[in-house]
Amino acid sequence: MDASSTYQDSLPVSSDALLEQLRGWGLEFTFHEHVPLRTVEDAKSVEAGLVVEGETAFRVKNLYLRDKKKRNYLVTLEQDREIDLKALGAQLGVGNLSFGSADRLMENLGIRPGAVSPLAMVSGAEKGVTFFMDAAAKTADRIYMHPLVNDRTIGMTFADLAVFFEKMDVSPTWLDLD
Predict the structure, then answer these.
(1) Can you list the positions of beta strands (E) in 6-161?
(2) Which residues contact 13 (CB under 8 A, 6 or more apart)?
(3) How confident is the model over 23-64, as pLDDT tens digits?
(4) 59-90: b or e for each residue (b if 16 or more CB lie within 10 Å)?
(5) pTM, entire model
(6) 26 CB neighbour count, 10 Å cutoff
(7) Helix H segments across 53-157?
(8) Which residues make Cβ contacts (< 8 Å) with residue 2, sequence separation at least 6?
(9) Coil, helix or strand at residue 27
């Protein structure tokens, strides 16, 4: 099964339900539909259509990781950041990290590979997933991410994303990587 909106009804929270919840909270976002994207390289192929002149965009790369104690982490970074998992584990103070399996991704974040996003904390918060986010997102005009499926992208301001985190009772740990 792929991570597109075709199969969103098999997720714990569908993309449509998430978007409706965001609207219900009065959060604004831009909405884009596109071909399914599984990687940063795939995403770069459609980004030209999402560019707003003069806007500082923060485009994400998301990592679902686990440590040896089986604790789960979602790490959201600027898409072009180079990542060394060993160094990242040391920086986060959690030891060695490895990528979580597709089954664990569904169990803990309620999504499939290719659709990982900060918005997956809608499920991850109650599952005890620890969330880390690149502090550079705070200075962006708009943060672009998948709404639980990989054939849609939404763009939110940092202020609206912060309200989402507050509603989900998520306190991101901000990473200063510069």
Answers:
(1) 30-33, 57-67, 72-78, 97-99, 130-134, 142-145, 152-156
(2) 110, 122, 123, 148
(3) 999 999 999 998 888 777 877 778 777 777 888 999 999 999
(4) bbbbbbbbbeeeebbbbbbbbeeeeeeeebbe
(5) 0.93
(6) 8
(7) 85-92, 102-109, 121-124
(8) 36, 112, 114, 150
(9) coil
